[in-house]
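== Item description ==
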Amino acid sequence: MKHLLIIVFSALILGGCASPTDQQLNFNPQADSNQVTIKEQKTLALTTTDVRTAQYLALVTKGEDKAMPIHAKQNARVALNKAMQSVLQSQGFVIVNKSDNSVDVELQEALVRVKSSTFSNQMDAKVTLKVTAETPAGKFVKTYSGSAKGDNSMGASNEQIEHMLNHVSKLVLNDIANDVELINYMQEKFQ
């Protein structure tokens, strides 16, 4: 009987260690409707890469010793790719698998840093994307970045962190969607 209790207790402990208890964020980048569209349809191949060194989207620091990373529920690169597809298609571009025209979106940073104490928290969000529009005749490269800060007297909830991250992502995607210089380059150079 004693041996059976040890086995049951060990199974409960190991089962508790194996169960996923990590909090996760819903990363859902979207742009508002864009104001710039092209006159005639152009095809392009879209690729999205995630070059961040750390794959979490939030880092919650409590005191000086404890830091808890929070990851996304979905793949951040895939979510960003869907958002960019939506932006480009709404502008009149046709996305294909292979084309001499390409747009590469590089996710360089997407992070909300939360400094939490007993009575307050500070949130600092930053999103950085590098866009490369390339044709056989040359390429256009530009980095887009957005940030936001927030303070409140209560602890930061996952919903507040999600809201801030998605809001900053929207600002950056809007910058890309409404960048006349980028759109003009693609309209003139893409075949």
Summary: The first helix runs from residue 2 to 18. The first strand starts at residue 24 and ends at 25. Strands lie at 24-25, 42-50, 58-62, 66-72, 93-95, 102-116, 121-135, 138-152.
